[in-house]
Amino acid sequence: MELNEIREVTRRIILEIISSNNGADKNPVKFEDEDSLIDSGIIDSIGAVQLIEECIQNFNVLIHPAELSLENFDTVDRICQFIQSKLVEDQQ
Amino acid sequence: MNLTQEISQVFSRHKEKAAMSHYVPPNSLITLTYGQLEERVREIADFLLKQGMQPGDLVMCYMTKSLEMVVSILAVLLTGGVCSSFYSKQNPQYSLKLFSTAHPRFLVLDEGTLRNLKKLVKATSSDNRYPVHLEYPELESIEIWQHQSGKAIYVLKYPSGKSDCGKEISATEHSLDDAAWCLFTSGSTGAPKGVLIAKEDLLRRAMTEIEDYKLTDQDSLLSLLPFSFDVGLNQLLSCLLSGAHLVILNSWFPKDVLTTIRSRNITGISGVPSIWADLIAYPKEPDFEQSVYTLRYITVSGGDLAKNQLVQLRQYFRDLKIYKTYGQTETFRSSMLKPFDFERKMTSVGRPIKGTEVFVLNDKGEIVIPNTEGEIAHYGVGTMLGYLNDSEGTSEKLRKMKGLGSKMMKEEKWVFTGDRGKMDEEGYLYVLGREDGMIKTLGHRVYPKEIESCILEHEDVKNAAVIGIKDEHKGQAIIAEVVGDGALTKQSLMVHLKERLPYYMIPDEINIVEHLPMTENGKIKYAAIKERCEERRILQDRP
Fold this sequence. Notes:
Structural class of chain B: alpha/beta
Mean pLDDT of chain A: 86
CATH architecture of the domain at 3-16 and 31-197 in chain B: 3-Layer(aba) Sandwich
Strand order of the largest sheet of chain B: 2-1-11-10-12-13-14-15-16
Oligomer: heterodimer
Distance between the termini of chain A: 14 Å
Number of domains of chain A: 1
Distance between the termini of chain B: 62 Å
CATH superfamily of chain A: ACP-like
Low-confidence stretches of chain B: 127-138, 145-149, 161-167
Helix content of chain B: 25-40%
Strand content of chain B: 25-35%
Number of helices of chain A: 4
Radius of gyration of chain A: 13 Å
């Protein structure tokens, strides 16, 4: 999977989580790829759990508990980098 | 000394020392010394005073947990206002309910919540259901951060007169001038309730905690809980008043928690059960013992863990002190299980803390003999002033009594907690459940009625009952049994609820049923529903 495609899927997952947790909000919060999602409160702790489950399903990767951290999941950029490294790891 | 004087003294005594940090692992850290903190607090305080803030004015900090939020909170306390904060992740409809309950004079916002609020105003301008005067505020913003990582703080001011409707604490001899804080709690009538805390009491609570956890200016405490929650708020104030260092972390991922302990030399953590449940399930790293060696104590607050989890927690953190605390928003902290009792009395919530008296009472209001079940009543430190604008609720919860206990010669106000409990011969308290079925989930206190009334707003719903059943992870899981009209689907009900309730009130399970078990008086038999849900769970868990 190309980085652009990963980015697109990640953004869609996040938008769905935000809008479902805000009551199917039609105009969800705008965020940039480098914006903090969890630390800034855009995504809450339940949303963070959803985010990880969606990543596992959509990208078909295994995520170890030790990989769950702000370092890997706080921004779209970081999520993409992390997922890409996981996909490369799986191929090898 | 009063709270304001105590805060001022800490500021001047520890000028050069680290006061507050916001940490985003692995490498983003912003720290303010007490001197820098004071400078910013005074700036916001001056701004509020210039805007005409009066003692007793309610100021709501609607912000993401951050250094800016701490600065705003302290500014309100220093200017004699009544501060209130609520969870920034709260969904818009629920935020509106809180605004309309509170009628704040000022709203303090950050960029994110300001954006949310603007959306809220747009979405509700044609909606008359909520008597909120959001369309009036004059927006004033103030930039308080000079350095690069600076974030703006925004202040919304409501025209005078608008807030007067919120200025009463009925059914008590107090006025809002005596209050320092208003904590919101899920109300039994379906609307959130504002619990008012006296200025002296807020100080006493912090001082009690400093003594119990033996806090000194050498401590670094990890702040994981929101300031809208009494335990999180008290950690902030006790940390500040002892001159210690508070490290804010907005993540409950075990890895982030452990990284923060290690890299910031954390000595104490106030936590809720779900944080510890996640952590004991997390594989220990090889250098674990060394990496958490600075940690002195942790607390299990806002609910309890199952006995096997408490045992695991003890094994996970071998050398540190574990405190268990018990209380509710209206009483703050009634009892505490201290570390030296942990092994022996693990399933109890300990004994009344200094400055409180706690009794278990029967239906006639008499103290029961040891090991007999009854309602838990609380007197002393932590007792609320009353509910904001709810005299009926206040007189129901706060009752005057005399003749209880050894020192009780004159009439005093007691909080009737609504919790069922018993006390053993040694005075250790055991909490058994709620009189009215209140659910404790993920550290939040939720009344079933609040969820039920929301379910009943769905056009296809005829009747509904909500109960909590034991859940290893969340404390309690929320189950809704719903009678529909045939067109009802679980999906449409879920969408409906997510639009209106905060995440922690969303049922874990919805069962559409033919009818609910009822008494002859037409009351729902909650015990019967609970029984049948628990049976179903046991069946599901079988391999």
